[in-house]
Request: fold
Amino acid sequence: MNFGGALDRLLEILPQLAYIIPVILISLSIHEFAHGWIAYKQGDHTAKNQGRLTLNPLAHLDPVGTLMIIFTAMTGSGIGWAKPVPFNPSYFRDWKKGTRYVGMAGPVTNFILAILSAIIFKIIAMIAFKVQVDSGVSVFSILLEFFRYMVVINISLGVFNLLPVPPLDGSKIFGTLLPDRMYGWMLQNERYIGYGFLAIVIFFPQVLTRILTPLISGAWSVLNFILTPIDMLLKLFT
Reply:
């Protein structure tokens, strides 16, 4: 084994990890908290009783899903998952609508984080340009890189979690639109479907890439459209 080469590779990716890991901890914590909070607001205290209505990342991290985000973030995307927040739809007035809202909370939160981070990125970039910051390492360069990763990872997490496959959020959003019998079958076989999906992610990543690439590209186009007024406003100050 070439330990020298492995060490060189580790030293090469350490700067990336210094940004990726904090971004993952922040993004996943807020994503999962949003699920629990929406369920709680609808009368379900399950997440709160199990210690999941918290921003503490240790309560939410899934080892495999977290490693997945780290590895894919280093290639320019950032897809993965956390431990699903438990909820009991029997507490909701309308269990289908309530389940849909809980499912939507995570991806919507990721997209909001991406938009806010992109706005902050643009403001910092404008200030750095105005004060003529050198191209070397500075507080501005560190902040710009951090918020760049916040945008990239949250866009990818939001899109990935919209896939209608258990246990991803999309299965709750789109599954509740199915007839009760079909959705019931999906819930009964959720674990096995999840194992099959995990096998595809690990052994046939190119399949997932073909599905996600146009979706993520579309999400970036929507983001750029949303940011158009911000760009126009910032030009007034340059």
